[in-house]
Amino acid sequence: METSSVLRIYAAKAVAFFQQYKLPLLTLISVPFFRAIYLDYCDWYNLGPGGFPHNIKGWAMQSILRVLASRDLRSTQCYQDSKMSELDRQSFLDHELPKRSGSSPKTSRHCVPHRQIGEDTATEATKKSMPASMARLVQSNPDLIGIGPSRIEGGAPALHVRPEVFSSNHAHYPRAPYEFFHFHEPAEGSSHAILSPIDASLVIERGWSERHGLSGRALGFPATYVMIFAPRDEDEVETVTMIAKAAARYALEGKVLK
User: Distance from the CA of 203 to the CA of which of 102, 187, 190, 244 falls in 20 to 30 A?
Assistant: First the structure.
């Protein structure tokens, strides 16, 4: 018998087998697929609200964007650009940034919301200290910066540059409210900030940060939009506040803050 005839016989038997057992075969294939989708949705939902609607629509939106997200969030190669502006070549940190102690925190595989996960997060005490520290920074510089609900995180406390002192030439802030820092409250206590490339590289290399998966890729996030890991004690609250202050100075193009 010719090979082609044998193949046609087997193909006919395969079709007949599928027709006879179509429902159980489709069930066998689809159950693991839908179970994986359900578990992924549960993991995303348990991160809490932030950015997109906290429902199936929000999950679907971030699932699409995950295709665009960067996988290596702790690489600083993207900040090694010889064509950076004079502003981008500066560090705005007040003091030398210490190396963060302990192991590197874990973060969510979902890009929106971008959250720190595991046990190495903020304590209840530092969750209270961070908003208070942010408020003091604003109180010391009321003519330059303000505090209000985040438009990126959907209500989390955020710091922004006052429109009347903002320079329209700043490449990373195309529109108001010029938000440069927000704190994830009442979530796990991490933050997001827009830093200068020099400072973004430094905070990642010293263990305080990682890039957002969509930084420089989608939603208008600049390449220097980074997560700042949750402070675990008061010393770390001071360090995170220093990073927030550096973000403010970068947004203000170097103006001095108190």
Answer: 187
How far is 24 from 247, CA to CA, in rounded Å? 57
Decide: 199 and 93 in contact? Cβ < 8 Å: yes
Residue 211 has pLDDT above 80, yes or no: yes
Residue showing tokens 């220093």: 242
CA distance 21 to 13: 12
What pLDDT, on the 0 to 100 scale, is given for residue 221? 85
How far is 252 from 232, CA to CA, in rounded Å?
A: 29
Indicate if the pLDDT at residue 155 is higher than 70: yes
Q: Is the pTM of this model over 0.85?
A: no
Q: Provide the 3-class DSSP secondary structure of residue 170.
A: coil
Residue type (1 letter), 74: R
CB-based burial, 113-150: b 16+ in 10 Å, e otherwise? bbbbbeeebbeeebbebbeebbeebbeebeebbbbeeb
SS3 for 31-63 is HHHHHHHHHHHHHHHCCCCECECCCHHHHHHHH
